[in-house]
Amino acid sequence: MTAPPDTGSEPAPAQPEAPPQLADGENTTFVFTHILFKTPGARFVGAGNDRTPMFAVDLGDAKGLLGIQAMKRQFNIPYASADDKMIDLAVRSLKYVSEIRPGDNVPNEILTGRASWMIDPRHAEIARKRLELQLLATVEPKKVKLTNTKEITVYLEQPENKGKLREAFRVAAKALGRPEEDTAFVLDKLVTFARELAYIEALREWFLQVGAILKKIQWVGKAYDGDRCLKGEITQMRALFMPVSQEYRDIFTRADKLSEDVVSALTTIGAKVKTIREERDRLHGLTLVWRDIVVQWRNCTPDTASRYLETTRATYRFLATRHSSGRSLLKAK
Asked: What DSSP character marks residue 95?
């Protein structure tokens, strides 16, 4: 299988204007009073492959890290004080963003449930076309499996399918308790649903980069064909890669099932949107976990693979920390 192209480091961050208040009346930006938070580079980060929440500051050319509870004790942050609550909110926010600095907005995921990162409009088009194809399937007994957006568009534009799609919209309108001619209502629901699924499509594209890593590891193996130790490590990595990557594959499977019965989904769209956002956030959290590894592999080609020996070993360590049997293999070395 040909390795898919790289598609960017991660979904683009965004800091849109926040609503005026949190539900409990707290600030929607991270405002701290303790002088500690005026230290150069003060920020909250997820450290290591498990993204353990830590407090970080800049120490010249180095980065100082301190555990959250240790930081509270060492700098006498009173329990239940405004700073203590804001620290806890920052820790929660690290599920959604790579770091939190004083003055940042509270992530939209916490404020409104919407994503804090932006997607390309084409991802919304991909999601809508797929929903239309599934809607067509409610009146078209023929099973069609198309994943390419252009192929789906061509299929939907065929005269007989355009007519059947109009019929499917009428059927959906009745199922939603509307007059069958009120297809605009169905379209509005479909667009709303597609807007949420678009984030899943953007993440699906991002994770193609993860899938490409195994192919690139094999290129490194060919570049060091005589290194028996490396060959053994690569064999172990192949064994680890599938169960580790299954972590995000399972989320995509669950997310895709949410729209399999599109008419049913449109009748319970509020609950479906809530679940899609939960799966979106799980996936996006995993992009933060995989991000550094993806970046390290980005420019690897068969011709440059010999330069990626340390990246290969860093990836081995990463996979080992994500899988229990891998950790035991690593300790045995």
From this structure: T
67-76 mean pLDDT? 95
Whole-number Å distance between alpha carbons of 244 and 329: 15
User: E-strand spans in 62-198?
Assistant: 62-67, 99-100, 117-118
Exposure string over 157-189, b if 16+ CB within 10 A, otherwise e: eeeebeebbeebbbbbbeeeebeeebbebbeeb
Indicate the SS3 state at residue 16. Answer: coil
- Using left for φ > 0, alpha for ψ between -120 and 50, and beta otherwise, residue 109 falls in alpha
DSSP state, residue 147: -
227 CB neighbour count, 10 Å cutoff:
14
In a 3-state reduction of DSSP, which class is residue 320? helix
Which amino acid belongs to residue 255? Answer: A
Rounded to whole angstroms, the Cα distance separating 296 from 299 reads 8
Is residue 330's pLDDT more than 60? no
143-186: pLDDT as tens digits? 777 777 888 888 888 888 899 999 999 999 999 999 999 999 99
Query: How would you classify residue 281: left for phi > 0, otherwise alpha for psi between -120 and 50, otherwise beta?
Result: alpha
pLDDT band at 8, cuts 50/70/90? Answer: very low
